[in-house]
């Protein structure tokens, strides 16, 4: 496999590569700064990166990749206990950080290397190690740890290259594209897609530092062609659009609007499309798999779906007994299993967890449940552990009920879970944040609303009202943190 970033050596011109606020680097400058870091870490197995939304994080990761060293991105918001686990598990040789960044006590025993984005190293940019194999680790990204301590997913160079090239095919992504986003850089979405993606194409990225609709307007109005975001960001955009014609005009001029990391509610899809004439497209991936499916740039941007499998990715739905769900009827629910060159290699130091994650013939068990429409489009309805509700003999995905609830004008946020019921097996419970806390919609009104849109057996049997839903850094609802 060729270099992950051909433009670092093929294009030593003044073309912009990265911009964070007022600070930027051309490809030649990035090659020099990353080459300097690569030379300092060459020969190590793993290095930690204090992954703030900054030029230094991007330079550190690219430098490690040039040296054939695996980067371990650290979430700056992690507590000492979590950081201690990650550092003990991954045993990085050093931590790379921006000069002046204050590191927490958990990193006190680790040698620190400050990243100099102005380093001028003649001839830098070429790999600073010998040939690096496709299966060699590129990143160790730690999962959220919802079922125990975070696990380190070892992502090989092969997976990064193939997933980014598959997205280039699906999204018609080229070096002419300029991407804007404000995503954190310790996750696959912000780091692999949002930083390494443009660099592999030879394009450029403008990072907002902190997401804001004014930043989106500014960048899309001055040459940016693509926007990446999570549903929370697109929800804020949808809320702002009625009073912000400049934002509507900027979005209307974008080539591609992409949402990921969680399902974008249909209501927000429709509000953005109505105001801008542009459809947001969704894709589906995980830390362990990188990207599996996407709505294609030349396909139908169908709200509520994550499109079709990307080139090279095999996808199937499987019933609880292990048999394949063959029906593409939009109703038959199964767990998503995938196979392809986009997959991770292993969970670091966890052969038991690695073995449990795969079937005997190499399919990865995602834990996500979905249905497929007759034309093959995938519609995710939730997580197997928290979102597959078995009620009255039916298998029901929480996601479609949440979307229906969000179409009610009295609902600002919604989550759906199941709880034990002596008669039904499980009853459907809706957790609702009202649009007007002083006058929430009645339980019966919401139940009837869902029954009319979906089916009577999918209506909530219980509605519980909250001031806000618990969410993680990427805007995903943390259902395990809902009140018991």
TrEMBL record:
Q: EC?
A: 6.2.1.-
Kindly indicate whether the keyword Ligase belongs to this entry: yes
Q: Which Pfam families match?
A: AMP-binding, AMP-binding_C
- InterPro entries, per database record: AMP-bd_C, AMP-bd_C_sf, AMP-binding_CS, AMP-dep_synth/lig_dom, ANL_N_sf
List the Gene Ontology MF annotations in alphabetical order.
Answer: ligase activity
Provide the AMP-dependent synthetase/ligase domain boundaries.
Answer: 12-348
Using the UniProt record, name the top-level EC class of this enzyme in a single word.
ligase
Ranges for the AMP-binding enzyme C-terminal domain?
A: 400-476
What keywords is this UniProt entry annotated with?
A: Ligase
SUPFAM superfamilies associated with the record: Acetyl-CoA synthetase-like (SSF56801)
Record's keyword annotation contains Metal-binding: no
PANTHER family the record matches: ACYL-COA SYNTHETASE, ACYL-COA SYNTHETASE FAMILY MEMBER 3
**Known NCBIfam families for this protein?**
PRK07787.1
What is this protein identified as?
Malonyl-CoA/methylmalonyl-CoA synthetase
Recorded source organism is: Streptomyces rishiriensis
